[in-house]
């Protein structure tokens, strides 16, 4: 990924050491410091005017990392919101005469908002728009995203659900665009999840199906997307709940996911993100013993609870055989051996005494191979060798 | 200026083909007095884009069966027009801009950064070449041929349901190898001269059906049995390394409005802004070398001019000044206008990606000893035809008589493969033969520089830029680092 691991360089940094460049730089520093002093003095004097607001804009455009100024900006906005709501413009416009008053009133009426809410909505939209060019220049600045989240939270609090939800939907679209540019940015995925959550609350409906389809699209574009697989895994149990899937349907879903990830692994067993997803699927096969545990399991499992030992054993055996097949042509892939060892151990724990366990000689040979391939973790493999000895 | 007669120049460039035009661009800030002439009444020379009526005139000119007398690049040109039925017909001539040079440009090509650094890229619009296909004949005589998408990377392989798991694994292994094949000589250098399909079978256990797909990525003009591993590997590497450079899902681009002609035009425009004088309908009738590194030229209107440097191609500098060029095997080519949009050829290839305007379709021959036909499909978005139509460019490395039959069959098969969209025949087709005048022509005088023509490859080769750089270096004597590196002109936006 071209944008990962690249150090951030200030847009105005210069390596030119000439006297003219230094003079120019000193001038810029002086201007900046004057601007900073202006903003801080005004805030201290409780000058919450538009002039101060514009000054914070100028300062933040030069230095969006200056989080104190973002805080000041929010204080200013909160003050404006408070005054709007207190001004008595809270009546919903209903009469023709009122409508004719001014364009703002008309717009407010059309949107089903009070005049105050209309004002607040405009201010929020303007501030969101103000952030876009900043985002283009500094896409990874936490404070910008923070401010966005705050603006949208204000929308949820102060505006009717329908209006707020529209703004959040816009945010989802922005998030999707960012993920096209950098599909593996886990911050973006995390932000996406909180955005989706807000929309679900405001619109009182689940977006799980849409989001599931989205993860399918994203892994189809790039298999190696840890975040997309992670998101998918988070959604699966919810999906089974929401679809009110029968036991049969749950099994079909689980098998389909196993088939998908097996196909991906055959294509590229060297990709760690795929193994993580496989491990996740296998980890949902938790055999529960008590009724309470069943309910918890229902929330995180895909397969219908209770999951018997027999079921888990069957899946483990199936996957061990399938992964063993993958060795053909990929004998130098350490992940395959690691997976084989892990699942074999799990099978041993379940089997405890019964005869369907993996032969010790096989496990020993896998251990030998992985020790050759994974020299960094020599100690770990040594420990495992010792614990495997009968 | 009133007349060219009696004028003196530092450089006279003959022909506005792409190499000469790039040279004009490279000299556009040098302060040299440049005269750039072209015998045609249009820019672009052998890389020109033609309207319908221009194409008709062009075909009449190159209709002859051999090029021997004129030393021309083209011959055997002929046009076939379908009877108009109802609404399905050709539009007016200027609605078309048919490219004689529809080559794709790989994103890792050196030409693209050179266009950026020379400040000309802003005047050009590039569009993505998205999908690669192989056209296979139907299972029996009755069934339609099928268009199979060629996987260009891991995700394509993952999604493709037609490969079994084993085949997916082998294909991935091969792609991973190609990614840095230069560092694994032990795997392939022993097989360097062997046919590529054999190498695939033996070293990677790739079954025969996958050979056509991988060969299509090479764009090699030779028959599969004659395409060596040493030829194929760098070509596939070029393809794979270009994917994703400019955006997800594609690895090559085409210039909008008529292929490489557009780049030639923009380059000439830059030359003119830099002070060069442009005259069309003007060729050279006679070259006189006075011996003191000055040439006296007699132009086609009788004008006498003097110049220190004379640059052109083997074709348009008179035979007297040069040793005769070596003619290699050429290409039979065709351009067809189709009365349909053929959207199946231009799907968006990645989530959030661009809609491509170009597609490549390889049509293998029935035996491994015959060369494949390559089809470059351009949608209406490429700006070469009206919005309800598209343009199909086809080529095959065969003499004209054999070649034109193969091309007609390939285009017909492509049209038959679309299910639902019944398109029986092209509205209009031109077929012609392009000779390979080769690079070996050398001027007898060191101040007469011959720029080799573009290779017949379907992808633009980097040596075009190298040749121009050499000529530029000789004329200006400047350091390589300043080649095609310009500042933005005052008052003009980048």
Automatic annotation (TrEMBL), chain A:
GO molecular function term, any single one: Rab geranylgeranyltransferase activity
Q: Where are the annotated coiled coils located?
A: none
* Reactions catalysed, as given in the entry: geranylgeranyl diphosphate + L-cysteinyl-[protein] = S-geranylgeranyl-L-cysteinyl-[protein] + diphosphate
Q: Which InterPro entries match?
A: Prenyl_trans_a (IPR002088)
Pfam families named among the record's database cross-references:
PPTA
Q: Which UniProt keywords apply?
A: Prenyltransferase, Repeat, Transferase
Cellular component GO terms held in the UniProt record? Rab-protein geranylgeranyltransferase complex
Task: Give the signal peptide, or none.
Answer: none
Q: What is this protein called?
A: Geranylgeranyl transferase type-2 subunit alpha
Q: Which organism is it from?
A: Cryoendolithus antarcticus
Automatic annotation (TrEMBL), chain B:
Cited InterPro entries: FAD/NAD-bd_sf, GDP_dissociation_inhibitor, Mrs6
- Species lineage: Eukaryota, Fungi, Dikarya, Ascomycota, Pezizomycotina
In the record, the note on similarity to other proteins reads: Belongs to the Rab GDI family.
Return the PANTHER family for the record: CHM, RAB ESCORT PROTEIN 1, RAB GDP-DISSOCIATION INHIBITOR
Protein name as annotated: Rab proteins geranylgeranyltransferase
Q: Where is the signal peptide?
A: none
Give an example GO molecular function.
GDP-dissociation inhibitor activity
Biological process (GO) annotations?
small GTPase-mediated signal transduction; vesicle-mediated transport
**What Gene Ontology terms describe where this protein resides (cellular component)?**
cytosol; nucleus; Rab-protein geranylgeranyltransferase complex
């Amino acid at each position: 990924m071209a944008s990962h691991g690249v150090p951030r360089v200030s847009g105005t940094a210069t390596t030119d050491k000439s006297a003219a460049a230094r003079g120019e730089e000193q001038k810029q520093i002086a201007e900046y410091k004057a601007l900073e002093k202006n903003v801080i003095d005004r805030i201290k004097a409780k000058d919450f005017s538009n002039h101060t607001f514009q000054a914070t804009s100028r300062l933040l455009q030069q230095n969006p990392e200056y989080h104190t100024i973002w805080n000041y900006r929010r204080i200013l906005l909160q003050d404006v919101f408070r005054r709007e709501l207190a001004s008595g413009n809270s009546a919903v416009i209903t009469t023709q005469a009122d409508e004719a008053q001014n364009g703002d009133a008309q717009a407010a009426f059309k949107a089903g908002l009070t005049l105050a809410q209309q004002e607040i909505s405009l201010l929020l939209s303007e501030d969101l728009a103000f952030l876009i060019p900043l985002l283009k220049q500094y896409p990874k600045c936490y404070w910008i995203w923070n401010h966005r989240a705050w603006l949208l939270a204000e929308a949820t609090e102060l505006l009717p659900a329908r209006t707020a939800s529209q703004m959040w939907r816009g945010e989802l679209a922005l998030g999707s665009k960012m993920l096209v540019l950098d599909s593996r940015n886990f911050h973006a995925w995390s932000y996406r999840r909180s955005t989706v959550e807000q929309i679900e609350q405001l619109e009182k409906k689940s977006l799980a199906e849409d989001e599931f389809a989205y993860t399918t699209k994203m892994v189809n574009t790039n298999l190696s997307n840890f975040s997309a697989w992670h998101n998918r895994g988070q959604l699966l149990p919810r999906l089974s709940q929401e679809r009110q899937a029968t036991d049969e349907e749950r099994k079909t879903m689980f098998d389909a996911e196993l088939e998908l990830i097996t196909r991906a692994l055959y294509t590229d067993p060297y990709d760690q993100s795929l193994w993580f997803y496989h491990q996740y699927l296998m980890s949902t096969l938790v055999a529960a013993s008590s009724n309470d545990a069943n309910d918890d399991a229902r929330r995180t499992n895909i397969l219908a609870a209770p999951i018997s030992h027999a079921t888990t054993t069957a899946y483990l055996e199936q996957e061990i055989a399938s992964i063993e097949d993958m060795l053909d042509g990929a004998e130098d892939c350490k992940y395959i051996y690691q997976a084989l060892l892990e699942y074999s151990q799990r099978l041993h724990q379940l089997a405890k005494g019964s005869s369907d366990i993996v032969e010790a000689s096989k496990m020993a040979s896998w251990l030998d191979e992985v020790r050759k391939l994974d020299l960094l973790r020599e100690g770990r493999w040594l420990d495992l060798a010792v614990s495997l000895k009968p | 200026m009133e007349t060219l007669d009696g004028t003196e120049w530092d450089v006279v460039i003959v022909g506005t083909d792409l190499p000469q035009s790039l040279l004009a661009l490279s000299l556009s800030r040098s302060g040299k007095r440049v005269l750039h002439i072209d015998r045609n009444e249009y820019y672009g020379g052998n890389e020109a884009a033609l309207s319908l009526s221009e194409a008709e005139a062009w075909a009449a000119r190159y209709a002859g069966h051999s090029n021997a007398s004129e030393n021309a690049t083209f011959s055997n040109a002929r046009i076939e027009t379908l009877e108009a039925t109802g609404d399905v017909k050709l539009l007016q001539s200027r609605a078309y801009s048919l490219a004689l040079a529809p080559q794709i440009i790989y994103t890792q090509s050196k030409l693209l950064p050179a266009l950026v650094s020379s400040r000309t890229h802003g005047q050009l619009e590039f569009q993505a070449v998205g999908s690669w296909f192989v056209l296979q004949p139907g299972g029996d005589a009755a069934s339609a041929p099928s268009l199979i998408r060629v996987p260009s990377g891991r995700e394509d392989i993952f999604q493709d349901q037609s490969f079994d798991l084993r085949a997916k694994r082998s294909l991935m292994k091969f792609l991973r190898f190609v990614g840095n094949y230069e560092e694994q000589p032990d795997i392939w250098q022993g097989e360097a001269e062997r046919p590529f399909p054999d190498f695939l079978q033996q070293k990677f256990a790739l079954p025969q059906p996958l050979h056509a797909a991988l060969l299509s990525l090479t764009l090699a003009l030779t028959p599969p049995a004659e395409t060596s591993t040493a030829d194929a590997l760098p070509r596939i590497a070029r393809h794979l390394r270009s994917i994703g450079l400019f955006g997800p899902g594609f690895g090559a681009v085409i210039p909008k409005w008529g292929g490489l002609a557009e780049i030639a035009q923009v380059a000439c425009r830059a030359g003119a802004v830099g002070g060069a004088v442009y005259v069309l309908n003007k060729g050279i009738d006679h070259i006189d070398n006075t011996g003191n590194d000055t040439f006296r030229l007699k132009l086609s209107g009788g004008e006498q001019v003097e110049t220190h440097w004379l640059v052109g191609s083997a074709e348009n500098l008179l035979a007297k000044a040069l040793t005769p060029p070596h003619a290699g095997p050429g290409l039979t080519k065709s351009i067809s206008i189709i009365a349909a949009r053929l959207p199946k050829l231009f799907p968006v290839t990645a989530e959030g990606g661009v809609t491509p305007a170009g597609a490549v379709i390889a049509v293998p021959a029935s035996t491994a000893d015959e060369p494949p036909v390559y089809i470059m499909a351009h949608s209406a978005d490429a700006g070469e035809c009206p919005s309800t139509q598209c343009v199909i460019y086809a080529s095959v490395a065969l003499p004209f008589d054999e070649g034109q039959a193969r091309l007609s069959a390939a285009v017909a098969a492509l049209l038959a493969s679309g299910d639902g969209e019944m398109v029986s025949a092209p509205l209009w087709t031109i077929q012609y033969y392009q000779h390979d005048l080769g690079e070996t022509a050398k001027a007898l005088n060191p101040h007469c520089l011959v720029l080799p023509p573009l290779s017949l490859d379907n992808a633009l080769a980097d040596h075009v830029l190298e040749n121009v750089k050499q000529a530029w270096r000789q004329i200006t004597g400047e350091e390589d680092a300043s080649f095609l590196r310009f500042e933005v002109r005052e008052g003009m936006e980048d």
